[in-house]
Amino acid sequence: MAANKKLLILAGDGIGPEVMREVGRLIDWFAKRRAVGFDVSQGLVGGCAYDKEGVPLTDATMAAAMAADAVLLGAVGGPKWDNLPFEKKPERGLLRLRKDMELFANLRPAIVFGPLADASTLKRELVEGLDMLIVRELTGGVYFGSPRGIETLPDGTRRGINTQVYTTPEIDRVARVAFDLARLRGKRVCSVEKANVMESGLLWREEVQKLHDASYSDIDLSHMYADNCAMQLVRQPKQFDVIVTDNLFGDLLSDCAAMLTGSLGMLPSASLGAADATGRRRALYEPVHGSAPDIAGKDLANPLATILSFAMMLRYSFDLGEDATLVEKAVAAALDRGYRTGDIMTPGATRVSTTGMGDAVLKELDRLAA
Ligand code: NAD
Predict the structure, then answer these.
(1) For the residues 31-43, what does the mean pLDDT come to?
(2) Which of 28, 227, 294, 319 is catalytic?
(3) Does some domain include residue 322?
(4) Omega of the bond prior to 147 within 30 degrees of 0, cis?
(5) From residue 87, how far is each of 45, 55, 95, 143, 370 by CA, in Å?
(6) pLDDT digit string, tens, across residues 302-348
(7) Which of 31, 187, 274, 313 is most buried, judging by how many CB atoms fall within 10 Å of its CB?
(8) Domain count of the chain?
(9) Rounded Cα distance, 312 and 333, in Å
(10) Same domain for 155 and 91
(11) Radius of gyration of the chain (CA)
(12) Ligand 1 in contact with 265 (CB < 6 A)?
């Protein structure tokens, strides 16, 4: 068995270690049943790192993250650390990881499993079977552009300034990620901006089209204004396969798409960096939810968002698409059999603990692999 896939696990705070424990059981299952081996190491991030090491992320853990093929993170934060100075806060550990690993592409899938379709605020027929992916540019745009600030004008009034700015390499690299991912899925990309009113949006549209024509003509590319995209997401979300958009619009649209699924405990995510000469990309996989201090330590948390993040890791970092699909099928089957943690509980279903949901997924993996 090749154990050359270097995986760093940072379980973090609150429910982080609980949901990550279930991923640990999946890793053992893959080693035993599929001969898929990982060279796993563990580290501290967030409040637990502050408690033990005085900072939310040590240089040594950062170096381990840089050397890993993939990092899998649970969640950070909690009331215990709320009053720490800004640079010591648990979230700073996560921000440093994202910054130093130069993770410029944030991937947020919105998948609706049939048995959970009624958890959405939209009608079942609009969301059932939904499987789309938003690729958001994460390190550029208006959140980082300069000039920025608040200034007082000579007449005493004040002016707030932020600058939306994108360069062609920034657009090109995130669009490449979207096109590459579309090749692994439905081969459709919708690029979203406001080219009608923003020059940066016009540049975005032109560059994405140019890249498509040069290197990705096998992908079906469309363009959409961001306001229309927000409407289309709640009107007919299943029209989308991959959406690629900038930092600001991606922030809004990915939360909107998340709500189509109706459930925080089910949402995985990935953040990718540039590919090196060997094609390896730095990558961080994590559930969208936080550390849920209100249910931490009680074996109540839904581990599926983290398990689905693990599946994304198999597919996008290790090219193990078949194994990723196996995990996703096992999750779907466990839900089909009526197993639910409290957050996704429905009348008539069987309520299970964090461990109980892990058991259910492992049982389905056994069945699928038999
Ligand atoms: P949260 O996502 O932790 O919790 C929101 C609500 O959803 C809570 O009621 C919680 O019990 C529930 N919930 C979340 N995940 C769940 C799961 N897997 N299973 C069942 N229920 C789940 O958000 P919050 O309460 O705003 O923040 C709590 C702490 O987490 C804060 O310290 C915040 O800064 C931090 N946080 C961290 C991250 C991260 O690590 N990426 C993200 C968001 C918030």
Answers:
(1) 94
(2) 227
(3) yes
(4) yes
(5) 13, 8, 10, 19, 50
(6) 999 999 999 999 999 998 999 999 999 999 999 999 999 999 998 89
(7) 313
(8) 2
(9) 18
(10) no
(11) 21
(12) yes
User: Quick check: CB of 295 below 6 Å from ligand 1?
Assistant: yes
**Structure tokens of 318?**
């290790």
Q: Which residue, of 260, 275, 298, is where some domain finishes?
A: 260
206 lines ligand 1 (CB under 6 A): no
* Mean pLDDT value of segment 160-174: 97
Residues 105 and 135 in one domain: no
| Cα 2 to Cα 58: distance, rounded to the nearest angstrom | 30
Q: Which structural domain range is residue 224 located in?
A: 131-260
The overall average pLDDT reported for the chain is 95
Looking at the structure, tell me whether residues 233 and 308 fall in a common domain: no
Q: Which among 260, 284, 304 is the end of a domain?
A: 260
Task: Give the CATH number, domain containing residue 136.
Answer: 3.40.718.10
Active site residue 100: no
* pLDDT, tens digit (0-9, with 9 covering 90-100), for 1-16: 445 799 999 999 999 9
pTM of the shown model = 0.91
177 pLDDT above the threshold of 50: yes
Cβ-proximal residues to 309 (8 Å cutoff; 6+ apart), any chain: 72, 268, 269, 270, 285, 286, 287
CA of 69 to the centre of ligand 1 (A): 27
pLDDT recorded at residue 119: 83
